[in-house]
Amino acid sequence: MGETKLRILYVHRGVEGSDGWGRSFFLASGLSKLGHEVTFMTIKKGSGLTIEKKLLEGVHVVSFPEFMPNKLRGSGFGLFSLILKIPFSIWNKFDLVISDCGHRPSALPAFLNQYLRGANHLSEWWDLFGEGGYYKEKPFYFRLFYGKLEKWFEVKSKRMVDGVIVLSSWMYNWAKKNGIKNIAIIRGGALTSTLKYSPPIKKSKVDKLIVAYLGMADTELDFIRPAFEAFSDPNIKQKVELWGFGKPVSRQKINEYKINDILVEKGWLDYLNDVSAISEVDVFLMVRKVNQNALAGWPNKLGDYLALGRPVLIHPYGDLNDFVAKNQEGFILVDFEKKSIVNALQDILNEKYDLEAMGKKNRILAESISWEKKSKEIIMFYDQIQKSKKKSS
């Protein structure tokens, strides 16, 4: 069954190039490389009324226009584009549809193709959006107008589909507890097809150690507070730089966290065109405040770190504990507190670790968890569901 060419529709919740694109599109691309015909439904970046179609890495990307504010269009509430997506979904028949945010309005085309055209529907469940998760962090107006529906349909939608994809054992157990039957754990992959390994540049003893964090934004700061405390330590401050790749950090947050002379903002890293800035990076930072949201998901940036071939200074939690334990060579373990991070940085400065050799190990590890391999896991899950249907019929 896995060798049969499938027509697949991937329903993306947000805007082309963002809003989970780094998982959804790379899985779609991997499915295409396996020989399947993949259509990727998304919202286009610019303005205008036209529907844009293009072939990108073997995937037929269909981008729909949207006029809702960026925050709404990027979180599954692009209502104008939804009106245009509905007839597209009804008119075209697919064997498999995948929705990456199954409980938001953006997933409606996937449900329509499932119920009207007979497609198998897999819904991803990346995070705990409702009760006990991100719901409590949502603005008052969101909780007032959509909150009850968010909490109810997050679970209800997963009971309506043929299979559910989660990112962690914790989320697997949560789904089981909520009555979900067909579940597969498919964690994040690594973009080895695009991100090429290049060794770090040679440095002199007077050069600073460069530690980098991908995905920097205001919302990330509380997650990595101990790192800021460590980098401000007088034994570290003059010898190490923390580079943040991602969104600009607001002046308010910079003042709040007192990181004006600690954080070096480098802007977005253009994975598809230019990652030359990484040549100066010595180590990547992967620390995270652990709560239910962290345990439910999987850090997508970890695959990027591994693919770029650098050691990772990491505070493992949840499923990361087993992953790191099985692949120790490229990781430097720390606790989620200042002293532990300071000690690790001092060990690196004292040349306790062979950073280049560790980076090469991580690149090899990245090849073993590429997005292409993760896409194969989706097809295996699809085949499993098909076999189960045949037995019960």
Write the topology of this structure.
Elements lengths: L6 E9 L5 H13 L3 E7 L8 E5 L2 E6 L5 H4 L5 H13 L4 E4 L8 H10 L2 E6 L14 H6 L1 H14 L2 E4 L2 H9 L5 E3 L23 E8 L8 H7 L8 E7 L4 H7 L5 E5 L15 E4 L5 H5 L3 H9 L3 E3 L5 H7 L4 E3 L4 H12 L5 H14 L2 H22 L1
Parallel strand pairs: 1-2, 1-5, 2-4, 5-6, 6-7, 7-8, 9-10, 9-12, 10-11, 12-13, 13-14
Antiparallel strand pairs: 3-4
Helix pairs in contact: 1-15, 3-4, 8-13, 11-14
Tell me what the structure shows.
With 393 residues, the chain is of the alpha/beta class. Helix 3 packs parallel to helix 4 (108-117) and helix 8 crosses helix 13. The strands form two sheets. The protein has an eight-stranded mixed beta sheet, with helices on both faces. The protein has helices at residues 21-33, 70-73, 79-91, 108-117, 140-145, 147-160, 169-177, 225-231, 251-257, 292-296, 300-308, 320-326, 338-349, 355-368, 371-392, and strands spanning 7-15, 37-43, 52-56, 59-64, 96-99, 120-125, 163-166, 183-185, 209-216, 240-246, 263-267, 283-286, 312-314, 331-333. Helix content is 39%, strand content 19%. It contains 15 helices and 14 strands.
